[in-house]
Known about the structure:
Distance between the termini: 48 Å
Pathway: Cofactor biosynthesis; NAD(+) biosynthesis; nicotinate D-ribonucleotide from quinolinate: step 1/1
GO molecular function, one term: nicotinate-nucleotide diphosphorylase (carboxylating) activity
EC number: 2.4.2.19
Protein name: nicotinate-nucleotide diphosphorylase (carboxylating)
Family: Belongs to the NadC/ModD family.
Low-confidence stretches: none
Amino acid sequence: MPDLILADxxxxxxxxxxxxxxxxxxxxxxxxxxxPESRQAQARVITREAAVIAGSxxxxxxxxxxDPRVAVRWEVADGERVDADKLxxxxxxxxxxxxxxxRSALNFLQTLSAVxxxxxxxxxxxEGTPVRLLDTRKTLPGLRLAQKYAVTCGGCHNHRIGxxxxxxxxxxxxxxxxxxxxxxxxxxxxxxxxxxxxxxEDLEELDQALNAGADIVMLDELxxxxxxxxxxxxxxxAKLEASGGINESNLRQxxxxxVDYISLGTLTKDIKAVDxxxxxxx
Length: 282
């Protein structure tokens, strides 16, 4: 599946930000009202730790929606590695707007940068191999597209966006359809042109998926030896994706089997927010 690009996310970013501001500000920031409405301010946002940055468009949209008079000046770009204490961006505008937008803006940036940072770490582990590391649907509710965009900032790639853009036929689907061949044939009838992926648990099921004409075969927790066999047996008839039981200790070995893809829920699920700080000058 193609990777998300920022140009396609304008409406999604605006909707993400509207929800975040409604959640945080609600009927109005009563604490910010302590400051005179005319007071202007400047602010600087730094990272307290090394990271890969993602989410600048969400930050821009936060301040655009709160008060378009706020100027945001970026010192870094999405996908850029930064060291601790690096200045990421500066702000100038009404003090109330800067303070009201601070938490929502940093929430987006710290979360999406956490995804990009984790992805960069995993991408570096397989550097020099042709494998593509893919994300999964294990994302924060309401932030799937945002997190999947952040995945690309870290050098990894997008799997299907949801249940609507590609088939992923698993054990229960196969059982309900009466077998792999029947499941693939039904998928072709339901949505011609949509990618059809089949999850298999052994080499016998691999053969069935290949004979059925699957576009992608997911090798679910196969041994390294069986993955090597699967690559030779498939010989380019379908793309192969390794999944399940994969971590940083065995990732490189799996990449070197010759599979096309490795999918990892950890890219979006097991993240720790990047530590950011905003310093205000009135």
